[in-house]
Amino acid sequence: MKQKILLAILIILIIGVSGIGIGRLFYPKQTVVENESQEDHDKVNEEVIDVEKEEVKDLEEEIPEEKNGVFKENAEIKDLTFDETPNVYLFWGDGCPYCEKELEFFEEIYGDYQESFNLYALEVWHNEENQALMQKVREELAVSSTGIPLLIINDVAITGFSENKKETILTSLQNINNEKDIIKEILEQE
Question: DSSP per residue over 68-131, as a string?
Fold first, then answer.
């Protein structure tokens, strides 16, 4: 019996001294990394991060830059720009529930249409200049309704907002062009 115990101790010592370790006997699938310092580990991680950054940069270069339109909720007349992208104007009042719903509708759809038009939401209850511009638009387009919201797409006025008006708005947006901008015409006359 003493011989078996001595043999077992001898095997354990040989395994321990050889660098394999007892853990290898019980967990042979584990990988043992010897002589790796924290510095070496950090260097490998930095190299992986640098490669990832390069891959992201390469992907960004492959994606063409998109032109995003303007979506200005509290626009003023001085904010308006006139370029090749058609403008849509929403006259609204802060606190008007129908106006809020129309703004929410535009927020929902704008991602699909941002290359097609710029949206300028001109608040009229607290901004006299915007209110005066809205009145000129009403006169120019012979809009009899005095309520808000008032949406202007090209030279078409859409008053009020409801679920039924969403389809009218979408149809008008699909037919938008830069041929007729009533606001631009009014401002050029001044």
Answer: P--EEEEE-GGG---SSS-EEEEEE-TT-HHHHHHHHHHHHHHHHHTTT-EEEEEE-SS-HHHH
